[in-house]
Write a structure and sequence with these properties.
The chain has one domain. By secondary structure, the chain is mainly α. The model has no long low-confidence stretch (mean pLDDT 86). It contains 15 helices and four strands. Helices cover 68% and strands 3% of the residues. The radius of gyration is 23 Å and the shape is globular.
Length: 405
């Protein structure tokens, strides 16, 4: 049952507001107005149906008894893994095996895998008496299973969300920060390999931080050698690539290298947002969208439609609502008493926040295009349903905080 005194109605209201704004944005993104003639695709009313189903799912999760909910997590995760295996044998859509087509409804098991993986990892790394090395082992082992299957689809962008959630959960589970540094150091070493001076500075900084953490000299030496090796081997790896492979990577980093090919999406998105100025071009009047210069404008690049038609003010409104939503989510996580629930809620917060950052970042040209939708705003039933249920899980935890130790 819902405890009205502890239920976070503000968090729920902010999520519903985002869903409503998403439906409005999808309507204009689905409409084409040229020469006074308007045509509208059916994405907007489908999103409304998805929204109703998502709200119904939220209510169902909130009223589900907690023992039943917790008993359901592990079997659902196993079934989801089987679904990720089965989807690899479905017909490819745009070169990827990601969806089950059930009577015109497309279900994407990688979406539900995010939430279920977070809940299962939180359960295992939050056990009493578990040292930090076992926490890392359980966390990485469990996450690697869905990540490997999703990469086979292939869907590399979604795997970033799993890693972001895992690192955040390990921090929430009180993993020492020096171990977190060791976990992410190879990624930093890859980036640092662009210049020998950057390699030198990064590795000296890493050694200094590890010494300050009072690790053994064996650990410091091994970590330093591994990171130096990664930094030095990257140029050799780069030279070994074919010319077309190097061009793909360079265009991934700098879209302007191939403005009519791989960089087309981000360039058009930036043009759309920039042309909106302060107030935007007006409702339904986005030229980049209407002339279909902006690809995927109802899904991955819907933020560009908002920027073009509603300008800086409209974009700022969306960002403000997201800021309030995540601020309230972080505040709520701080109120949780049960360790497993706090870790799980932290993972949910991380994957929703990282998903928002990546999507908006690729729309304004800060990060490469990865095909990650904007939570609650972009068109898509699976993504909206799982994001809503994820927030419902946090609301459920908050509603029962203090009842258990």
């Amino acid at each position: 049952m819902i405890n009205r005194k502890k239920f976070d109605f503000l968090l729920l209201a902010l999520m519903l507001l985002l869903i409503i704004l998403g439906c409005v944005a999808i309507y204009t993104a689905s409409s084409t107005l040229i020469g006074g003639q308007m045509s509208t695709q059916n994405y907007w009313w489908k999103q409304i149906i998805f929204s109703v189903l998502a709200i119904a799912a939220v209510v169902g999760v909130l009223y589900l008894p907690m023992p039943v909910f917790e008993l359901f997590i592990l079997p659902a995760f196993i079934l989801n893994i089987l679904a990720l295996v089965a989807v690899l044998f479905t017909p490819a859509v745009n070169g990827a095996h990601r969806w089950f087509n059930l009577g015109g409804i497309h279900l994407q098991p990688s979406e539900s895998a995010k939430l279920l993986s977070i809940l299962v990892v939180a359960r295992y790394i939050s056990k009493e008496g578990l040292n930090e090395y076992k926490q890392m082992f359980y966390g990485f082992f469990i996450m690697l299973v869905p990540i490997a299957l999703i990469m086979m689809e292939p869907d590399f962008g979604s795997t970033l969300l799993f890693w972001a959630a895992l690192i955040t959960m390990l921090v929430a589970a009180d993993l020492p920060l020096f171990l977190v540094l060791l976990l992410i150091s190879p990624v930093i070493s890859v980036v640092a390999s662009v210049h020998w001076l950057v390699i030198l500075v990064w590795n000296l900084l890493l050694i200094y931080l590890l010494i300050r953490s009072r690790l053994s000299w064996v650990t410091i030496t091994v970590a330093s050698i591994v990171n130096v090796f990664i930094s030095l081997i990257m140029p050799v790896f780069w030279v070994g690539l074919k010319d077309y492979q190097q061009n793909r990577i360079l265009t991934f980093i700098d879209p302007t290298r191939d403005p009519l090919g791989a960089g087309y999406q981000i360039i058009q998105a930036k043009i759309a947002i920039g042309s909106g100025y302060l107030n935007g071009k007006g409702w339904l009047l986005g030229t980049q969208k209407n002339m279909n210069f902006l690809p995927e404008h109802h899904t991955d690049f819907i933020f560009s439609v908002i920027g073009e038609e509603f300008g800086f003010l409209g974009s700022s409104l969306i960002l403000l609502v997201f800021a309030l939503f995540f601020g309230r989510l972080i505040f709520g996580i701080g109120q949780l008493k049960v360790r497993e629930r706090k870790v799980a809620a932290s993972g949910i917060m991380a994957y929703l926040m990282f998903q928002s950052f990546i999507n908006i970042g690729m729309n304004i040209g800060l990060v490469p295009a990865t095909g990650i939708p904007l939570p609650f705003i972009s068109y898509g039933g699976s993504n909206l349903l799982i994001n809503s249920v994820s927030v419902a899980v946090v609301l459920k935890y908050l509603n029962e905080r203090g009842f258990m130790k």
